[in-house]
Amino acid sequence: MKGGLALSDAVVIEKCDNYDIENVRERIKEGLQLLGGIEKWVKPGMTVVLKPNLLTRKSPEQAVTTHPHIVQAVAELIQKAGAKAVIVDSPGGPDSKAYLRSVYKTTGMEEVAGKTGAIVSYNPQKVELKFEGGSQFRKFTLLKTIVEADLVINLPKLKTHGLTLISCAVKNLYGTIPGLIKGEYHLNLAEIQHFSSFLIDLALCVNPALTIVDAVVGMEGEGPSAGKPKKTGMIFISENPFTLDYLAAATIGLEPEKIATVVESQKRGLCVKSMAEIDFVGTKDNHGTVPYQLPKSIKQIDFTDGLGRRIPKWLLPTIYEWLKPSLKFNSSVCTKCGICKESCPPAAITLDEIKPVVDSEKCIRCYCCQELCPKHAVEISYPWLGRILFRR
Ligand code: SF4
Ligand code: SF4
Fold first, then answer.
1. Which of 60, 124, 288, 310 is most exposed, with the fewest beta carbons within 10 Å of its own?
2. Per-residue pLDDT tens listing for the chain (392 residues)
3. 340 in ligand 1 pocket by Cβ < 6 Å?
């Protein structure tokens, strides 16, 4: 991993209607060729980390994780270029080798490794890294495998997200932080603006050479894990993860400036401010808008439009307090596995005889419990005023 992003706004969009391996291979090869070919970044002898989104133990059809054929196509190119591909992620949930193995297996990564000769990393070692290029955060604890790599290739999945609205290029890099340390960061960065600023500094520190977005089938609704698969039919490729998030938001019918990470990256001159500023390489005609249903997250309620603009700023904290959602656990599907309890940054969850119980005073509304519940048993519930105002 070397610092200093080369922030070209060049973007390739490849149409890709399905995950047939021949099709995916061809699209990715063609897309990279348009940007100069994989050899532009990958040199013989390098160790190249592939960072897919492996949020949790879900099969590829559930559209929670980066499809294995995207990872396979990139791994093949890297190995062919004479480098070593290493698949790395730090999923949410229990911090154990057995769980990580089950995630790699269920998401299809073990199979990718078997087919391509890539390695899946089980190395839990972490490194504290100083990063002078951060604007607000200059020290990160990261997975050692990522820090020691010669190159990182970011392979996110396009999804909605309860906290950050979208999960794509920038948010995917949160998985470079080992295990439960992610929870500590969540705890200390409960405000969305603060968390977004952290994510931007983290992306600059991890410095992916390339980002290839799996937007063939994304996820809409209660993403990043409890939503519905949404056929989108595209793969995006660029050196610039910030501009790709702008494009991702526009693609799903969302005003990019509604996303705190986009706004922060624009402020820092890292991201385009309009679609017209994107340097589309190849043809722009491959792009289409596919509106996604958004998640129900109160943290993203926007008071800067319409009537909301007239609400005095000093009143907003009180209004947020009135509209604060609570969490409901569906005991008919909850298996009491305890994953939500283990993943809750402020330890706000206890398990009673029937189901989990949340201490709402302690809860920071990070939605990690909803994100990681394997049974989709966690629901967000709004007070009556919130339901009326925001039609939740
Ligand atoms: S709510 Fe989900 S994660 Fe929590 S105990 Fe029940 S099944 Fe497990
Ligand atoms: S209860 Fe859920 S939303 Fe609340 S802090 Fe814990 S993990 Fe986050």
1. 310
2. 544 455 788 999 999 999 999 999 999 999 999 999 999 999 999 999 999 999 999 999 999 999 999 999 999 999 999 999 999 999 987 778 999 999 999 999 999 999 999 999 999 999 999 999 989 899 999 999 999 999 999 999 999 998 889 999 999 999 999 988 988 888 888 788 899 999 999 999 999 999 999 999 999 998 899 899 999 999 999 999 999 999 999 999 999 999 999 999 999 999 999 999 999 999 999 999 999 999 875 455 555 555 556 667 677 777 767 777 788 899 999 999 999 998 898 999 999 888 899 998 899 888 889 888 999 899 887 776 665 555 44
3. yes
Indicate if ligand 1 lies below 6 Å from the C-beta of 334.
yes
Distance (Å, rounded) from C-alpha 195 to C-alpha 260?
Answer: 9
Statement to judge: residues 255 and 337 lie in one domain: no
Q: Which of 286, 315, 344 is the last residue of a domain?
A: 286
Say which residues have a Cβ less than 8 Å from residue 298's Cβ, sequence separation at least 6: 320, 323, 324, 325, 365, 382, 386
Cα 101 to ligand 1 centroid, rounded to whole Å: 20
- Asked if 26 and 110 sit in the same domain, the reply is yes
Nearest residue to 168 via CA among 105, 128, 213: 213
Q: Would you say residue 293 lies in a domain?
A: no
Output the CA 378–ligand 2 centroid distance in Å.
10
Q: Could you tell me the residue range of the domain that residue 93 belongs to?
A: 10-286
Whether 135 and 280 share a structural domain: yes
Does some domain include residue 1?
no
Element containing residue 126 per DSSP (H, E): strand 126-130
Residue of 329, 352, 370 to mutate, ligand 1, most atoms within 8 A of C-beta? 329
CATH number of the domain to which 374 belongs: 3.30.70.20
Q: How far is the CA of 348 from the centre of ligand 1 (A)?
A: 14
Atom of ligand 1 nearest to the CA of 336: 5
Identify whether residues 183 and 217 lie together within a single domain.
yes
Atom of ligand 1 nearest to the CA of 376: 2
**How many domains are there within the chain?**
2
How far apart, in Å, are the Cα atoms of 281 and each of 14, 112, 207?
A: 10, 29, 22
